Amino acid sequence: MTFLQIASLLIVLAGLFGAINYLFLKLPSAIGILVVSLAASLAILVLDLVAPGLGVADQVRTQVTSIDFSDALLEGMLGLLLFAGALHVKISDLRQQWRLVFLMATMGVALSTVVVGVGFSWITGMPLLIALVFGALITPTDPVAVLGVLREANLQKSLETKIAGESLFNDGVGYVVFLVLVGLAFPSDSHAAHGESAAMGAIMLFLQEAVGGAVLGVVLGWLTFRIMRQIDDYSLEVLLTLGLAFGGYELAVALHFSAPIMAVCAGLLIGDVGAKHGMSEETRKYVDAFWKLIDEILNAVLFLMIGFEVFAVAFTMDAVMAGTLAIALALVARLTAVAVPVTLLKPFRSFSKGVIPIMTWGGLKGGISVALALSLPDNEWKPLILTATYIVVIFSIIIQGLTVAPMAKRIGREPELM
C-alpha cells in the first residue's frame, strides 16, 4: 500500500471506530477508539483460529507490520502531539509548579527507570542494562491521554498543570535516557571495548540531546514569534506554527538534539508569549482551534494504531506472565517517581493528600512506549520487552484511563499544591 492509501485507511477506520464508540460504548474518545480497534484485532485473530484457511490474520499482520509504527510516531506524530499539548500550558502556571515538575521529570524518570529495570531483571533474568532500557521506555507518560481523561474530572488548574507539565517534559527526558541506555546496552563493535569512553559519551549525548533540544526550541519559537508579530493574517500564522512544529522537529532530529524537548519548549513559548504578544484575538481563536483539532485527529489515529499493533506482538505464556508482573512494577515505579519528589518538597510547601494517588494512577502510558520498544535493535530480549510493554500500555490506557477520573472525583477536586 502507498503512504496515501495507508493514511486514508487509518483516517477512515479512526472515524468509523470513533462513531461506534460514540453511539454504543460512550467511552472517552481516544480510549473508545483503542477498545474498538483492539476488539476488531482480537476478532480477526479468533476468526483465524476458527477458519485458518482464510489467512485473514496473516494478511492483516502483513499490512500492520508494513506500517513502521515507531517511525510514524517518533519521526512524525510525536512532534505535533507534544507541540499541541505544550501550546495549551501557560508558562506562568508552569512557573508556579516548576519545582515538582522539574524533580519528577528528572529525578522521577531516573527513579522509575531504576525501579523497573532492577525489578524486571529479577523477574525475567534479563541482563540489568537491557532491563534498564525497558525501564526507560516504560517510564514516559502520555500527556494527551492523561489530560484528555483528567479533564473530565474538572480538577483544579494547578494539579492539571503539574500533570501536564510533568508529562510533557518526562516524555522528552525519558526519550533521551532511553537513547543513552540503548547506546550502552547495544554498543557498536568499535566502542564495545571502551567502557569508560562509552560512559562519557553517554553523558555527553544526554547533555547534547536535552540542552540542545531546549535551546533549539526556544530559539525557533522566539524567531517564529518575532515573525508573527509583524503579521495579522490568521491563516498564515496558523501555517507558521505548523511549520515550526514540523520543521523544528525534523531540524532537531538532523542536529541530533532531542526533538520532543524542542517541540515542548517551542510550544510553550508560542502558546504563552506568542499568544499574548504576537497574535490578535481572532488569530488566537484559530490557532487554538486548529491545534485542538490536530491533537484530536492524531490522538485518534495513534490509539487506533496501538490497538492494531497486537498483530506485531508475540504472546507467549512467559511473556504474558512477565508483562502482567510488569504492570505492578510500573505502578510501584510511578508511585516512587511521584512520592519521592513530593516528600522532598514537603518542608517547603504543603500538599493535599490527593496529589500522590491521583498523579500515580493518572500517569498513563501510551504510544511512545510501544514505539520505543519497536525501535530497539533486534536481539533475543526484544520480543519479551515488546510484549511486556504492550500489556502495560493497554492496561494503563483502558483500566487506569477509565478509573482515574472517578477516583479523582471521589477524593475530591481539591488535591493540589497549596
Oligomer category? single chain
Query: How far is the N terminus from the C terminus?
Result: 54 Å
- Work out the helicity level: over 70%
Mean pLDDT score, rounded? 88
Unreliable runs: 189-194, 414-418
**Order of SSEs, N→C?**
HHHHHHHHHHHHHHHHH
Shape: globular
C-alpha-based Rg, rounded: 21 Å
As a percent range, the share of strand residues is under 5%
Q: Count the helices. How many?
A: 17
> Which class do the helix and strand fractions yield?
mainly alpha
Instruction: Say how many strands there are.
Output: 0
Biggest beta sheet attributes: none
Would you write up a description of this structure?
This protein is mainly α. It contains 17 helices and no strands. The protein has helices at 3-25, 29-50, 56-66, 69-87, 91-96, 98-124, 128-138, 143-150, 157-185, 195-229, 234-255, 259-277, 281-308, 317-345, 355-361, 367-374, 382-411. Helix 7 (128-138) runs antiparallel to helix 9, helix 8 runs parallel beside helix 17 and helix 14 runs antiparallel to helix 15 (355-361). The termini are far apart. The model is unreliable at 189-194 and 414-418 (pLDDT under 50).
